[in-house]
Amino acid sequence: MPLLRAFLVALLALFPLLPSAIARAADAPVERLAPVYRHSILVADLERALTLYRDVLGLSVSRVTDTPADSYSYRFFNIEPGAMKRFAYLDGDGGHSNVLGLGEVPGIALGLPDSPRAVAFVQTVADVEGVKARVEAMGLQTIEPVEFMSREAGRPGMEFGIIDFDGHLILVYGLLRDDEQDG
Q1: Which of 59, 62, 149, 166 is the most buried (most CB within 10 A)?
Q2: pTM value?
Q3: Closest to 161 (Cα-Cα) out of 57, 6, 29
Q4: Cis peptide bond N-terminal to 81, omega within 30
Q5: Running DSSP on this structure, what letter comes out for residue 17?
Q6: Superfamily of domain 39-182
Q7: How far apart, in whole angstroms, are the C-alpha atoms of residue 40 and residue 74?
Q8: Helix runs in 28-169, H state only
């Protein structure tokens, strides 16, 4: 008990130092920006794109902003200034924020190549079979699924491709339903 009391007294003695330590941390120069790992794509209709990315794939919209006239997006996407109207930032599960950006350029025809497909957005989903059925019901093109054995889970899984409304490739994978456990 005397040891615990001594520890608590020592700990309480540090509390007056806390505000100055916080102030020093707040005044410290920022050495670099917070890391961002986001895939950004152009879409012709943001609301339509969200029916897939939000409503089916389960990403959540953290914010939607109007695209300013001086946005660097025009330069790196190589589009006419003023063409992009809005930009949506989407978050994934498990604290994965800002994983996908959707830049809306109304009416744009992207003309993405069908072969080879050079870029894909990859996402795991909880109900891969349900996602596949919903995507097919939307009339979107899918790439034939492949089943695999998950080394991580020791259960079969499935992966398949989706071509979204604007021609972007999405690779979706997840575990198959375990009918013995579910039933």
Answers
A1: 59
A2: 0.78
A3: 57
A4: no
A5: G
A6: 2,3-Dihydroxybiphenyl 1,2-Dioxygenase, domain 1 (3.10.180.10)
A7: 13
A8: 46-53, 73-77, 128-137
